[in-house]
Amino acid sequence: MNSRDTLLVDHGSLYPALQRLEKRKWIRARWGVSDNNRRARFYEITALGRTQLRAEASRWRRVAEAMHRILGPEFAPE
Q1: pTM metric for this prediction
Q2: What ranges make up the beta strands (E) of the chain?
Q3: For residue 57, what are the contacts with CB-CB under 8 A and spacing of at least 6?
């Protein structure tokens, strides 16, 4: 999935966010070699992270549904 360039995150925000997620044990990181044969850091969601993701996604859906009710059907996604 991707956001079709709607959500763009710069490196200055991305890596501190990844470090916070790792500190909370929601992701784990390991060093490896990328497809272009360079040293790279790979991230993987943990079981704890999946639990948190489900909770946050559920919360986000409730907010999005509330906004849809407030804005009305003329602002429904296409």
Answers
A1: 0.75
A2: 27-33, 39-45
A3: none
